[in-house]
Amino acid sequence: MEEKDQPKVTLIGEDGQPVADKSSENYTGKAQVQYPNGDQYDGDFKNGVREGEGSMVYGESGNKYEGEWKNNLKDGIGKMTFGTEAEYTGHFTQGKRCGEGVYKYLKTKDLYSGSWKNGLKHGKGTFIFYDTKMKIVGEWFNGQIIKETFRDMIKSVNLSDGYSKSEIENVASEIFKNDSARENFRLSYNTDWMKEEFEDRIEGI
Fold first, then answer.
1. Which of 95, 119, 141, 204, CA to CA, is 20 to 30 A from 76?
2. Do 171 and 201 form a contact (C-beta atoms < 8 A)?
3. With contact defined as beta carbons under 8 Å apart, do 118 and 125 qualify?
4. DSSP secondary structure code for residue 58 in this structure
């Protein structure tokens, strides 16, 4: 590795001051590291790898992680901020969102609270639309909703009792196949034309 590709390492002593007479190889303690790709880490090391508490600012994207590390990967409880778009607070396993966590869309303030696996919504969870307070409680599989109970949806769009629960779920599940469809529904479901559109789609099943 060429010298210009070597990460810049500043070792931090117990007094919080830089230590100049220690090698970073197999280092245990606190350190500040600037990597060649622009990433910057400030936190704990154990035997030369990121382990313990620390923060990482990712140079290319500007994203930031604060929390626990293990074997150089995000692992444990932490908070990941994705610029001005979103933030996640919860559990990580081997660098990915895994376990219980809350994902908040910062622009709309919508949020998902529930289970994750391999970085995707997976298991039981609740999606809440901030501006309408509508809740969707269900189960996700690899990021896709597969079973849902649409709390307040019937009341919100004034659907008649003539529609069965399965008919509502079949139509509404289409709304959550991707973020764009979800956002369109969030913006329009409380309007009169959306009520008509929703009812027409159910009648067409």
1. 141
2. yes
3. no
4. -
Residues in the chain: 205
Output the pLDDT for position 179: 59
User: Which of 122, 129, 42, 48 is CA-nearest to residue 90?
Assistant: 122
Distance CA 138, CA 150 (A): 8
Q: Which residues, including other chains, have CB under 8 Å from residue 65's CB and lie 6 or more apart? A: 55, 56, 58, 74, 78, 79, 80, 81
Angle between helices 192-203 and 165-175 (to 10 degrees): 120
3 state DSSP class of 132: coil
**Alpha carbon distance 202, 165 (integer Å):** 11
- Model pTM greater than 0.85? no
Task: Give the list of residues 6+ apart from residue 54 with CB closer than 8 angstroms, or none.
Answer: 41, 42, 43, 44, 66, 67, 69
